[in-house]
Amino acid sequence: MMYSLFAALLGEVPRHEQGDLSQQDKRCVFLTVHDLGTNHTAMVDFVNQPAMMEIKERSCFIHVDVPGHEENSPDLPESYPFPSLQTLGEDLITVLDFLHVKYAVGLGEGAGANILARCGLAHPRRLLGLVLVNCTGSTSSVADAFRTRFSRWKGTDISQSEEDFLIYHKFGHQIISEASECGERERERILAEFRSRLRGNLNTHNIKQYVRAFIHRKDLVLKGCQPDILLITGMKSPYASVVEKMYKELDKDKVTILKVDRAGDVLAEAVCKLLFINFYLNFFK
């Protein structure tokens, strides 16, 4: 079901719930945040996969859309300053407060993982664990800056360079290097599906606001973070080396890393789901 609530700094916060929150004392509650170029439907699709059925039956999920990313959203007004990733993370706790949820596990991908990590740092007693997929700890890389420099990021439509940036951010090297193995037809199907969702019911003006917030993110320092952390990355992801570097800097009693071979978009990989289930059963059961 879809609802909205008002957060002091974020404004209207659309959310989608899966599971019965009245059973939160008996189930694990996940708070999720999506990546760039998507919305809560990406997380709903992940949870609805057959491999996730066991977790789905034992859990509740609160999927949050960042501002302006609900289906068929109007343009965010010019007077609205799109929040930074830090602000999004700090104020995200209002969702749990509004729903009277005592504790949750954060599950985020890409920019959403960065947001939830900041939420865990700011509210360590409310997020018992963090599942961070392709999470970036450092500020924008040289590659980010290079691609952005040649991208207009203006107007109402997504330009080709902007689309290319989002495809690389999502799939990394997989789309190119795996093409010969999975076939050109499969490659085109994957890209067509992503482009269709990107240019479908999502507001491209608002997508760009989220992208800018991600590009201008500040360093994320997880050293000393209290919640247990699961870092997941695909070895074809452009952020694989960043995730591995983050892991090396953290307390090994608090962090686990799962590296998925031959994958960029790890949420679409069955092996990732199975590893995620194993982690869930061992740490959050």
Tags for this entry?
285 residues; alpha/beta; 8-stranded mixed β-sheet; globular
What features would you describe in this structure?
The structure is a single chain. Helix content is 41%, strand content 18%. It contains 13 helices and eight strands. Strands 1-2-4-3-5-6-7-8 form an eight-stranded mixed sheet, with helices on both faces. The longest helix is centred in the C-terminal third of the chain and has 15 residues. The two termini are 25 Å apart. The N terminus is likely disordered. This is N-myc downstream regulated. Pfam families: Ndr (PF03096). Belongs to the NDRG family.
The counted number of beta strands is: 8
Low-confidence stretches: 1-11, 176-182
| Main beta sheet | 8 strands, mixed
CA radius of gyration: 18 Å
Q: Strand content of the residues, in percent?
A: 15-25%
Proportion of helical residues:
40-55%
Shape: globular
Helix/strand/pairing category? alpha/beta
SSE order, as H and E?
EEEHHEHHEHEHHHHHHEHEH
End-to-end gap:
25 Å
Helix run count: 13
Largest beta sheet: strand ordering? 1-2-4-3-5-6-7-8
Mean pLDDT: 81
Family: Belongs to the NDRG family.
Protein name: N-myc downstream regulated
Task: Please sum up the structure shown.
The protein has 285 residues and is α/β, with parallel strands linked by helices.
Give the SSE map.
Blueprint: E1 2-7, E2 11-18, E3 28-33, H1 40-47, H2 53-58, E4 59-64, H3 85-91, H4 93-98, E5 104-109, H5 111-122, E6 127-133, H6 142-149, H7 160-171, H8 174-177, H9 179-182, H10 184-198, H11 204-215, E7 228-234, H12 240-248, E8 255-260, H13 270-283
Parallel strand pairs: 3-4, 3-5, 5-6, 6-7, 7-8
Antiparallel strand pairs: 1-2, 2-4
